[in-house]
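testing teh design pipeline on a random one, pls ignore if ur not involved
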């Protein structure tokens, strides 16, 4: 098995980035090591393309990623020049919002506080980001981050209506996200399918996450990894999962190192 056959898909907030400080310095040496060995690190996140472009630059990795919870694949052309730079799997946010407003009862809609309509002060409080990063976080093409202030039964009802109308509500770090019927796992499968068809290679998939919206991605890979986030209980996937004992970014380093060692052992048998 060659290292350039390894694709490492990773969530960001709470997985590679500390969920409170967004710090990732402790993971930089391992990221650089992976790049040096030819392992492709692909962020698969609820974040926007503007945020992901910046994070890829900070990490020193190519701008190859999946944005907005599986809505769009970016940068496949970097891995194979015949592939497209951008592949959208979601309808645009205007269509999504129209479907939402046409089909969700007004009483439920009034309990959904869409972040882009809130004051800057409130946006900063909710997202925990400095003012200079708010624009990038809310510059969305396919989804609406929002806070829901109804009770649990109303939240279940909201999700049921949304699903019935071909939309989806996913949890992304600190807020709920209204978007199309997409997922990180399905987008990853599309990514790998297109790349494999073009390169004629079989890829080994490592996936790292920390939350429920990462589960379908983790269930569709060869080596699922969960980073401790303080509240998530242990779960099982199709393949045996590696769990960290520390939170991000140290937990990310822990599970990635363990997985790469495991792959190396198999290779040397």
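output:
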């Amino acid at each position: 098995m060659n290292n350039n056959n390894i694709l490492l898909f990773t969530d960001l907030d709470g997985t590679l980035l500390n969920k409170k400080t967004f710090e990732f310095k402790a993971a930089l040496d391992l990221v650089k090591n992976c790049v040096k060995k030819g392992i492709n690190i692909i962020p698969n996140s609820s974040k926007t393309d503007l945020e992901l472009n910046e994070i890829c630059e900070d990490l020193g990795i190519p701008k190859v990623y999946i944005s907005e919870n599986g809505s769009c694949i970016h940068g496949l052309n970097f891995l194979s020049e015949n592939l497209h730079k951008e592949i959208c799997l979601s309808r645009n946010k205007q269509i999504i919002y129209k479907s939402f407003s046409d089909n969700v009862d007004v009483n439920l809609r009034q309990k959904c506080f869409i972040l882009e309509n809130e004051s800057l002060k409130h946006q900063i409080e909710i997202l925990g980001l400095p003012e200079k990063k708010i624009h990038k976080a809310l510059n969305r093409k396919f989804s609406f981050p929002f806070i829901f202030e109804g009770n649990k039964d109303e939240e279940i009802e909201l999700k049921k209506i949304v699903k019935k109308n071909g939309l989806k509500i996913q949890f992304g770090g600190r807020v709920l996200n209204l978007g199309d019927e997409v997922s990180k796992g399905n987008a990853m499968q599309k990514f790998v399918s297109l790349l494999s068809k073009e390169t004629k290679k079989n890829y080994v998939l490592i996936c790292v996450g920390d939350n429920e919206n990462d589960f379908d991605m983790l269930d569709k890979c060869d080596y699922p990894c969960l980073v401790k986030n303080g509240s998530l209980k242990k779960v099982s996937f199709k393949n045996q999962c590696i769990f960290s004992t520390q939170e991000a970014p140290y937990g990310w380093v822990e599970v990635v190192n363990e997985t790469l060692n495991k792959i190396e052992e198999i290779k040397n048998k």
